[in-house]
# Entry
Amino acid sequence: MKAFLKPLLVILVCYLLLKIGVPLVGSILHPGTWPVIPTGVMKMYVFFIVTGVLLMSTFSDEGYDALVGPIVDLYTNPAKAMLKLVTVVLVGALGAYITYQYVKPTFDAPVELRSIHPAPPSSIKAFGKRFSLQKLKNPFRVEDKEQLAKSAEEGGIVYYKNCYFCHGDKMLGKGPFWEGFNPVPANFVNIGTIAQLTESFVFWRIATGGPGLPSEGTPWISAMPVWHELITEEETWKVILFLYEYTGHNPRVTKEHH
Amino acid sequence: MMQIDSIKLHLCLGAGCSVSIKNSFGKMFSRAVLILISLFIISGISTGKSSFLADSLVSPVFASDAQPADSDGEATADGEAAAEEGPSVWAPAPPPKLEASDYPIVEGWNARISVWIVAQLHLFFAAFVLGVPIFVWVIEIVGFITKDNRYDRMAHEFIKVAMTGFSLTASFGGLLSIMLAVFYPDFMEYMVSVFGKTMLIYALLFFVESFFVYTYYYGWDSMNDGGKKKMLHLFLGLMLNISGMSLMVLSNSWAAFMMAPSGLGADGAFLGNVWAAVNGPLWNPLNLHRFIANIAYGGSLTAAYAAFKFISATTPEDRAHYDWMGYQSFFIAIVGLLPLPFAGYWLTKEIYDYSQQMGITLMGGVFAWLFIIQAVLIGAVFLSANYYIWCSLGRTNGADRYKFMIQPLGLVIIFAFLVWFTPHTLVMTSTEMSQVGGTHHSVLGPLGVMAAKNGAVNLLILSTFLSFQMFSRSNTEVVGTGFWAKNGTAIQIGLYTAGIVNILALSIWSYFIPAALRIGLSIPQVVTTLIVCVVAMIIDMLRNRGTRDIAEMKWGNMPIRSQYSLFMLAGSFTWLMGLMGYCRSGIRQHWHVYTVFRDNSTEAFTPTLPYAAGMVTLICAIFLLLILFMFWMPMLASKKKKEQPQPDSAVEAG
Amino acid sequence: MFNIIKIVFFCLVIWVGFAAYTLVGIPLIIPAAPPVEERLTGEITMEQFVALGDRVFHGKGTCTLCHNALLRAPLLDSIGAEAEAILKDPRYKGEATTGEEYLHESLVHPSAFVVAGFGKKGTNDTVSPMADVSKGAIALSDVEMDAVTAYLQSSAGVDVTVALPSGDAPVEEEEVAEVKPAENATEALMKFECSMCHTHPLIEEGGDTGPDLTPLVTRAATMKKGMSAKQYLVEAILDPNAMIVEPDTYDEDTMPDDYADRMTVTEMNMIVDALLGKEEKKEGGE
# Structure
């Protein structure tokens, strides 16, 4: 019986770790939140934990018998008819409960599938002309260190006049207005944002803003303004330079071809 | 003598050296031969420029480079269009701008679906028949050097399974090219205008390959004298592999060209240098990826074949034999599988370098979710592989000493897999989002990025290797008093600990550095994994000098359910290949040749993931039917020979 | 046989399972349909087209060199609205029937109608000093001329009648066809529109916006202290504002100061030599 219960216990512990442990860690990292594991991911986690633990327990014949034996016994042993009935009812009820949870109507908004970094188009229209993103380079990224610093500084002015209110004074995405937004403003210090993008991608995202997102970025709820209507092309490039200079990240570069 | 330490074979296959020969000259010789062979194959594949293959392609290129007028003379022979241009002016033609009406409609046929099915089936069979001869040949060499007839028999049996595959591969290849010509004539015309020369070489190579296939297979028994004739036979096997690889790299160049065209002018017109078109940015990454995958795939299919025979076997001898064969194939499949993610990283990196748009389409856009499925499949593969190894403990006589390790090892594997599987973009309901506090999950978010996944996958590989090492020593006991026999295990524990700490530390560190460096950091992680594996294996070899087998390995003493993990392995590989085929082809989006030749057919749209998954399942089912036929054929042949069919297989045949 | 069925069943279950997972476990994303092929029509809005015209008018077209408050040429603020009236003017010699056609025509054939008082000296307002902007150094493309027309109509407040460009017509970035270097001084003087403002024996019909260049043959050497004749002329061409001769008559910033970029050294030397009388006059002098 011990061999039968052990895998179940392991599964239960793992489940609790995911169900309570993960949000607990998250609530310590970010007080005020309770970051549960999203249902879709949780299902897969549990599926693989159950499968893995079952495999772990059945590789030897003894383990297999210990796990399967009691079940076979339950269903074949006439002495356990009552227990069998209870089990069948319980399992059936569990199935019914899961099914009910699955189909019952809810008032939740539909699940959102925003892709945070959707593929850019090959060319975009901004500032009254057309840019081919593949070849686009930051004209202010020059070898001359002094010139670079000067452009970045000018970009900083643009940043604090326009971007600061949402993206914050330290580029952490926590400007005065950040709490009002969902999705929250991008955190440029985080390695998951500008650090893994090319400057042309960043240019695209600034110039056309939330409304310029392709269909993978739906629903278009990003509050990012369409900046090419508000600032100049030059200012856009300078502010990009500033973002990288300030955060210390380097833009991703693509190899030259042909 | 049944007692063969199978690890020794694995050492030959894996590390390119053999330790199973007692006499030291033979040892050195075999080591040298194997190292040479592996170097030859790898250099031939991965560094195209230095290989003889490349040279054969370069020569026509240089000709056309030096004398453009000459190459024009050849071009005029190809088509009248060129003749009208005038023979002295070489005017490259850009790819045509097609309309939907330019694509022929054949009633009752859907062009894309037909081509999809046939191309994928062709690739399944091609991967199988290209992969099998590679390890058949290596096993044959091992048998030749060790004079152990069982290797020879196994190699012969493997090639027998693959034989039916050759004709099916060729049939599907022919069907594919005809379909392409019928359904996409303009596209094919353009491809021929660029690759015409290499296509002719390709067609000719078929004859060369067929010649070596037949001489290699039918000459097996008559040349099996263990001496000069056998060496000639080995040469035939080498030529078979070389011609097969040449076929593969040639056709890879077309696929790579469609994804990342090279050697073209700004308007997409071919500039006349075939080598430039062949040697595109994705060609070699694709070559390496497919070469390794072919080995893994060939191994997994032969493992499935052995599993099928094992389940159907009625005598203990048959069970022992097919268990052994299944185990060897399984090992080949895993050896092929382990480096595959890294070849995949290289390919992906080159795709990113070639075009950020294509890279993001692949990893961040429509196809991002496909990699979650891929992760699930790879997890399934790893779990079933580990399960098979754990079950293998049942064959040994001293496994009880190690069984306590399975539980924690299994948990590490599951944990690493869960990290590996965690998606970058989480799908959340609005309730969950408010609990999480936005779209960024503070715990899972950091696990969804490459930094975490690199660590996880290396941990996964190390754990799997540790499982295997446990199995490999569970039938031995220490009797000697040598240094390694006494301290080997302790050193190995230290080695594994250091390796795991290094991998985890690198993973954590990589959170704090820029993307470009972070990608580079995966290399030291892989190197760590490889070093730990290789060194631990060497220590095992040294340790084995002071050990002896407890008793004879109990081949055949495997539960039936273990064999299903081999089917799982083969099934997952097949399906995964199909899915990644959709992905590789799909990231071109609405282009025949990316950014150069637009696909304007009505079916230029990118299919959704479930649609593709359904197609892949359908193709896999067709493939399963064909492969059953393929496995059934050699049984038919052997039945006739034996003239006393086993009752079970007679039923199976029906 | 039973084993085969079991295996087939097992394989189908895992494959269908994988497919079912992609259907249920993965959010469905429908990839965007292939983009409609790019054509300039519809790709560019009228606002952008007018903005392009604006840039050409103030930049590449060098129109404001003369069409400015100094009234070297008539102001064009309301030309879009007046064009229709000009067509009815008896002095109009062109073939245009609509305002738009007139605007376009006046860019290519400036002499079709010359506003009173703005004609070339001595022609009684029958010949315009303006150059054909589709040729020479300005060399506007059709699309650019259309854009300028659209801009003129727009700034006059009338409806823009110009059709948006179609096909893959070049916009702005596209470099104009290579301008051939001049072969002799006469050609050079024409090419760089010296004739529009200056007079000189090599120039067929000169203008009076700038000083007469004829006396330079003798005067150039003494124009500026410490400079040879050649040095002075080079400076006067490349940096016109360095010294304005007769500041009361001629204004600063009138002569373009970008010849350093546009002229080849050979062309400049040819012009300097010609001004110093070193060029054989048989070619230009009639």
